[in-house]
Amino acid sequence: MSASSFDLVVIGSGPGGYRAAVLAATRGLSVAIVEKDAWGGACLNRGCVPKKAWYQTARLLRSAQRFAGRGVAGSLRPDLAGAWRQQREIVQAVRASYLDYLERLGVARRTGSARFVAADRIEVGGETLVAGHFVLASGSRPFLPPALRTASRVLTTDELFEKPLPSGRRVALLGSGAVGVEMAFILSALGLEVVWLTGREPLSGARFSEPGKKRLRQALAVHGIAPRTRSRPVGCLEHGGALELRLSDGVEHVDWLLAGTGRIPNTDGMGLESAGVALTDEGFVRVDDAQRTSNARIFAIGDCANPAMTANHALAEASVAVAGLTRPGTAPAPRPWVPEVIYSALELARIGQTEDELEEAGREYAVGFSAFAANPAALGEGDTEGYVRLLVDSESGALLGCEIAGAHAGELVHLARPGASGETLLARLARERFNHPSRAEELLNAAEGMVGRWALDTE
Question: Is residue 16 located within the same domain as residue 66?
């Protein structure tokens, strides 16, 4: 069996694995990346990238309801097949750019399943790869309840974006998490009749504030979208090109079903026991603050190591892991603020700590608030729903957390990042010079309402 040696081997080519490979290569390390499935991982092929394309289409279609008031005549109609083709074209374009960059950086690519045979080597196909360090970025896979595993018209998000959709307009959607909340809005806007079935209230376990979640429910209700809570599938029968769902509270007949019922970390079948890599009881790789596993030469990032299971966390953890392996012995960098975003009838974004977390820790904080209701840019766009909410340390004025609701919240939240050394983020926001009119000005308004309390310099 042939063997090749590298400074670093990355297992998994999703956003975290890709970033780890790029960062290491740009720092002069010899790097190989291994992928057993589609290059780019779940995010590019079956997740955030194609979903974001559909979300933009859904927003355009829903905004058409306000066209008449803007002096625009005519109407739009959804074309689901066209939307499906468009997201595939975007995925292919991004993947081509991604692979081209890896090639230009000199990152070696291997296709196949990786399995550890020792602490310093893996087997991929008929080749052994030996490395000084490894980064596990093996991702996750959808979980499907046993009652639904026999029907071909039951889809996970893997099939939703990778295969042409089944026929029929009446669709059951399972899930109270991000997938359920986002796809309820997107699929409805794309012309489908959605029967949304959840075991509990949407986003019950999410870190968004209760007022934010309430506003999202209200925004969904405006479009006639509401979950049927405490409704769980107990059986499924496929016949005549349709599905009969037996539920805990009755029966539903639909054309097909999309299951957003959680994901499982990909940590099995990789020979991790041969490398001395420990797992948690839930099957995630156990890591420390530097993303290092129980084997000091192996790091783990993203879905296989973090129950948050978002591309944003994987990208942030890639930076932490590469810093740890390129600067061994140094103290781990402060944990980055990682944004969390929901793309639905109302966009929600947050970063930093929540009010519940601060209260549980007994930490005193003040709140800065500003709404988009009178924001000139929002009024010009005809979409004034939402707000900016800042959580600030009562003693120092340091920003502790931020939540934004409304259009472009996922972009605006990046303004709530740590400031320069020795300067609080609140002071930096108060001294920023913003474009006018812009939605970003509401961060300034929320900050300016509090700067007097700490006598912060705004000049």
Answer: yes
